[in-house]
Specification:
Elements lengths: L18 E4 L4 E6 L9 E7 L7 E3 L4 E8 L1 E6 L2 E6 L3 E4 L5 E5 L4 E8 L4 H6 L1 E3 L17 H11 L3 E4 L7
Antiparallel strand pairs: 1-2, 1-11, 2-3, 3-10, 4-12, 5-8, 5-10, 6-7, 6-9
């Protein structure tokens, strides 16, 4: 990846931005990439299905802010659980263990990582929407693959998986 010295001016309308199916479940729409912002931040919308969970993890080199656009999540940060509905926000400073579970169908979050140093992880743990042989537009029926997420983190940095999802199975 080429190094940039200055951020790009960006204007993206609703629905605009590259769409990638994340192996952890959900479709990311990239609003501002690490490249766009010269590494200052990374911003994406995540459309998720009911009961999606993330493993317990940290971001060793970036702070992560999650803003709930619609729906509701159960957010576990440093061992404490918090329910966040539309309009709610959670900020996980670098190195703080966290995970979340989607509680409502149609849940969408806006994720901001500062600085934007995890692009290679997300690229390695996702694929462009429509790239699968089945040609799915949403990725909704694809299986979550925590192994591929862990491997992308190992190869690309940006995340450290420290345990399974901290939520009881339904």
């Amino acid at each position: 990846m080429e190094t940039r010295n200055a951020a790009s001016a960006i204007v993206r309308q609703p629905g605009e931005g590259a769409r990638r199916w994340f192996f952890g479940g959900g479709v990311h729409t990239w609003k501002a990439t690490e490249h766009d912002t010269a590494g200052a931040f990374l911003l994406f919308e995540d459309e998720m299905s009911l009961n999606k969970v993330t493993p317990l993890h940290t971001h060793p080199e970036s702070d992560e802010t999650l803003y709930v656009l619609s729906g509701e999540i159960l957010f576990n940060m440093d061992g404490m659980e918090h329910r966040l509905a539309a309009g709610g926000v959670a900020i996980a400073p670098r190195g703080v263990p966290h995970a979340f579970k989607v509680l409502q169908e149609g849940t969408r979050i806006l994720c901001l990582q500062t600085p934007g140093v995890a692009q290679a992880f997300y690229d390695g743990a996702s694929e462009p929407v429509g790239a699968a042989p089945d040609g799915l537009d949403t990725g909704g029926s694809r299986q979550v693959d925590f192994g591929r997420i862990r491997e992308s983190g190992r190869l690309n940095g940006g995340i450290e998986i420290i345990g399974p999802p901290p939520f009881p199975e339904p």
